[in-house]
Amino acid sequence: LALYFHIGEREEKCIIEDLPSDTLVFGNYKVQRWDIHKHDFLESAPGLGMYVTVSIPSGEVLLSKLYGPQGTFSFTSYLSGEHIICFQSNSTRLLAIAGSKLRIHLDIRVGEHFFDESAVQAKEKVDEVNVRLEHLIEQIQHVSKEQDYEREREEKFRKTSEETNSNILWWAIVQTLILISIGIWQIKSLRDFFIAKKLV
To answer: Are the CB atoms for 89 and 5 separated by under 8 Å?
Structure first.
């Protein structure tokens, strides 16, 4: 997942990643600051830090750390579900003058390491094959975890659907019994009325 987004200097921006359990996640980001004189984003934002916070589905904070204007963060999920990744600058400028926009370039990779091609080229051929093989094994394991996670979600959905259908069936039976009871009661009441009025 590679993207960029704009935020204010005091604003917090969050994204949601739906992850299986026991999955390694790497994030790489770079912050650019808007220059009102050049009317463009500067290549970097020196002196500006970025708080990165990661919350797991239960609400517990898994990661909370201050990084520089660009950096790499990582974490491993131990619960399956939606993980919330939030970014906020450490700007201390007052809100009234903090009109400067920030552009954050973000690259998130799930279930794999950031691959340093220059480091691989510097190694011998045997080491390069080993590194790529380990990288491939990690990807296979990640795909397997994703499939297991999807199967879990499908199983939960199937159980929920079956329970819903069962509830609907019982409710229909209860409604039918109620209607029959009301009909019998109305017939009996009408019969008693006719008998009382000596019409039958």
So the answer is: no
CATH number, domain 2-112, options 3.50.50.60, 2.60.120.680, 2.40.10.120, 2.40.160.10: 2.60.120.680
- Residues 143-148: contacts with CB within 8 Å, 24+ apart? 143/111, 145/20, 145/21, 145/22, 145/23, 145/111, 146/20, 146/111, 148/20
pLDDT digit string (tens) for the chain, length 200 residues: 788 899 888 889 999 999 988 889 999 999 988 888 888 888 777 778 899 999 999 889 999 999 988 899 999 998 889 999 999 988 776 544 445 788 999 999 987 544 444 544 555 677 778 888 888 888 888 888 888 888 888 888 889 888 888 889 899 999 999 999 999 998 988 888 777 777 65
Q: Are 80 and 149 in contact (CB under 8 A)?
A: yes
The overall pTM is greater than 0.85: no
Phi, psi dihedral angles at 45 (to 5 degrees)? -130, 75
3-state SS of 23-80? EEEEEEEEEEEEECCCCEECCCCCCCCEEEEEECCCCCEEEEEEECCEEEEEEEECCC
Of 138, 76, 141, whose CA–CA distance to 130 is shortest? 138
Beta-bridge mates of residue 103: 6, 32
Q: Chain-centre distance of CA 184, in angstroms?
A: 55
Give me the sheet containing 81-89, strands edge to edge: 12-19, 81-89, 50-55, 61-67
